[in-house]
Amino acid sequence: MTMFWTIWIGVITFGTIVGCWLLLKWCLANKTGVPEGEEMGHEFDGIVEINNQLPSWWTNLFYITMVWGVLYLIAYPGIGFSFKGLLGWESSNQAVLTLEESQAQLEEDIAADNLNEYAVAIRIAQERFDPIFAEYAKTPVEQLANNEEAVQVGKRLFLQNCAQCHGSDARGQRGGFPNLTDNDWLYGGSGEKIKETLIKGRAGVMPGWLDAFGEQGIKEIVAYTLSLSGRKVQENHDALAQAGKARYAVCAACHGMDGTGNQMLGAPNLTDNVWLYGGTEPAVTHTLNYGRNGVMPAFDVTLGEDKVHVVAAYVFSLSNK
Length: 321
Hints:
Blueprint: H1 3-28, E1 39-44, E2 47-50, H2 56-75, H3 99-112, H4 117-136, H5 141-144, H6 148-161, H7 163-166, H8 191-200, E3 202-206, H9 210-227, H10 237-247, H11 252-255, H12 281-290, E4 292-296, H13 305-319
Antiparallel strand pairs: 1-2, 3-4
Helix pairs in contact: 1-2, 3-4, 4-13, 6-13, 8-13, 9-10, 9-12
């Protein structure tokens, strides 16, 4: 937190405590001109108003609350001061800039038993749940997918970490986020391949070919590519597709001569009419013109291998009912 916000929050916090004290002192002062305990001269329905002080138990509770507030600010850095407070407590490590720094600092705090709320919460969770995940990890992904309890745990982890891209129903969305509920896999759909994808991440690169083939060449390749899934989109489609077949030899290096793709490279199957970025003529044309760059982040640090194992079991279960 910058010095400006430290001062700003500090002034508001201490100002509130001082303001409460001044307000209480003002309320305790006798400004009526009538001695305490005497009648104020007001009567309504037989009820006479008397000039009484605020109850001592009520005012003492206010004083205790204000003293508690000051002591709390001294013990804890609750208003953003640069010091950690007398107890050395902090909510989390605010100085880290990368995930690697955060993980290293977290491990250091847990080992040193520092009074860091985040580190303490992680340590408690590790002590409670790590043995459960370690036990799950002993079962192969394909078998674990039949364990309903493990699948539900994997589903919760999926919703927390994967649903932002693949959707809460895991059906993905156009723009580079695959559907995980079908049997169309870019890198393979076995338990170990899914786990490998989650641990290492993926970087799919499709180069742009506009400069190499020109607009006419791209049009021909698009026609041939669409014909692989049994579609014709132009009047002179057959002629364009025939010309595009010769040019397709360049694409075959990744997608194969028959267009069925290559899971070793993550090259998609072009014959099944499943399109990651859209299968319309304009969408395929855009892909060939400018290329695509899809990134799947690695979760080895974020989740750890045992939790990834459970998520892989959940994902595997979606397409293997």
